Amino acid sequence: MAPPKAGKNSGTMALIVVALLLTLVGAGTGFAVGTLLVAEPAEPAAKATAGEVSKPAETKAHAAPEGHAPAESAAEPEAAAEEAEEIAPADLKTVPFPPVLTTLAEPKGKWIRLEGAIQVVHDTEDPPELLSERSGEQILTYLRSLRLDQLEGPSGVLGLREDLNEMVQTLSKGQVRGVLVHGLVVE
Predict the structure, then answer these.
(1) Is the bond preceding residue 154 a cis peptide, omega within 30 degrees?
(2) Do 69 and 110 touch, CB atoms closer than 8 A?
(3) Residue 57: band (very low, low, confident or very high) from pLDDT cuts 50, 70, 90
(4) DSSP label at 11?
(5) What is the dihedral angle through the alpha carbons of 99, 92, 86, 173, rounded to the nearest 10 degrees?
(6) Distance CA 162, CA 154 (A)
(7) How many Cβ atoms from other residues are within 10 Å of residue 156's Cβ?
(8) Strand, coil or helix: 183
(9) Domain 89-186 in CATH 1.10.1040.10
(10) Which of 24, 45, 65, 184 makes a 20 to 30 Å CA pair with 38?
(11) Which residues contact 88 (CB under 8 A, 6 or more apart)?
(12) Is there a contact between 124 and 175 (Cβ–Cβ < 8 Å)?
C-alpha cells in the first residue's frame, strides 16, 4: 500500500509546483506590462521636446518663396492643411444656407431636413450669398443619395458632417471652410 500513497503525494506536489510556476509567470507578466504602461507617458514628453527643436527646420522647408514649389512633394498636402488651419475664426464669415428638405434614398418615404450655415473666407472670388446657394444645392444632392442607416447614431451624424465639409470645401475650391449644422430632422 505504500506505493499508492507515494503516487498521491507526487500528484499533489506536481499540482503545487505548476500552480507556483503559473503564479510567478503571471506576476512577472503583470510587472512587465505595468512597467511598459508607466514608461509610455515619458516618451511623448521626450518627443514633444524633440519636436520643438525640429520646428524651425520644418518651417524653413514650408516657407518657400512664392512661385516656387517646396522641395518635397509630400510637403504640399501638409502645407495646404496648415494653411486651412491657420485661418482664425474671426477671419471667417458665417452665411446661412436655405433649409434643405428632401427624401432619403432608402427607405422610401423618409424625409430629411437640414438647416445650417457655411463658413466663408472674407476675401472670396464669389459673393458669399452665391456660395451659400451653391452649397445648399450640393447638400441637397448629397442628402438624396443617403440611406437612413448611414445617419443612425453619433458616428453617422459625425460622418455626415465630415462628408458635407469635405464636399463643400472641394467644390468651392477652398473658399468655404466648413459647414455648421444647426438642425437635422429625419421623419
Answers:
(1) no
(2) no
(3) very low
(4) H
(5) 60
(6) 12
(7) 14
(8) strand
(9) no
(10) 24
(11) none
(12) yes
| Structure confidence at residue 3 (pLDDT) | 54
Write the CB contacts of 68 (distance below 8 Å, at least 6 apart in sequence).
none
CB 172 within 8 A of CB 134: yes
pLDDT band at 88 (very low <50, low <70, confident <90, very high): low
Q: Where are the domains of the chain?
A: 42-86, 89-186
Q: How far is CA 88 from the centre of its chain?
A: 21
**pTM, two decimal places:** 0.53
Q: Which three cell numbers stand for residue 68?
A: 516656387
DSSP codes of every residue in 37-97: HHHTTHHHHHHHHHHHHHHHHHHHHH-PPTT---S-TTHHHHHHHHHHHHS-GGGEEEEEE
Dmax (CA) for the chain in angstroms is: 104
Q: Is the pLDDT of residue 161 over 80?
A: yes
pLDDT of residue 70: 42
Q: Which three cell numbers stand for residue 8?
A: 498521491
Give burial (CB, 10 Å; 0-12/13-18/19+) of 66. exposed
Helices 128-144/153-171 angle, 10° precision: 130
Amino acid present at 133: E
Starting from the edge strand earliest in sequence, which strands make up the sheet with 111-121, in order? 92-103, 111-121, 176-186
